[in-house]
Design brief:
With 109 residues, the chain is mainly beta. The protein contains 1 helix and 6 strands.
């Protein structure tokens, strides 16, 4: 899996604060293991609204958005949908901050 695949895979895990997962399925062998730490529960406000959240910290041994030096944190909604609410990561050239701006629901007919 690549970085984005791991984000979506992490949404399927139990995600209890204090847990740590070591996964060896990164598409570049030198990036293994991928470590996902479940840091805490939180409540955050993003442009899409206010949400209860679970904060995780994904770490790769390779350079990039989820590298150990980047100290990335990812907020997922603390509900069955596990929406990606917010991502913050430090990089060598600056930082990346992403926020959920809108949630569209599909109505059944």
């Amino acid at each position: 899996m690549d970085d984005v695949s791991f984000v979506y895979f992490a949404r399927t895990l139990a995600l209890v604060p204090g847990q740590c997962y070591e996964l060896r399925r990164y598409f570049r062998p030198e990036g293994n293991p991928v470590v996902i730490r479940v840091l805490r529960r939180d409540t955050i406000s993003v442009p899409a609204g206010r949400f209860p959240a679970i904060v995780i910290q994904p770490e790769l041994t390779t350079a990039g958005i989820f590298s150990k030096d980047g100290r990335a944190e990812l907020w997922l909604s603390d509900d069955p949908s596990r929406l990606v609410l917010q991502l913050k990561s430090q990089l060598a050239f600056g930082s990346i901050n992403l926020y959920l701006t809108r949630v569209d629901t599909i109505k059944s007919k």
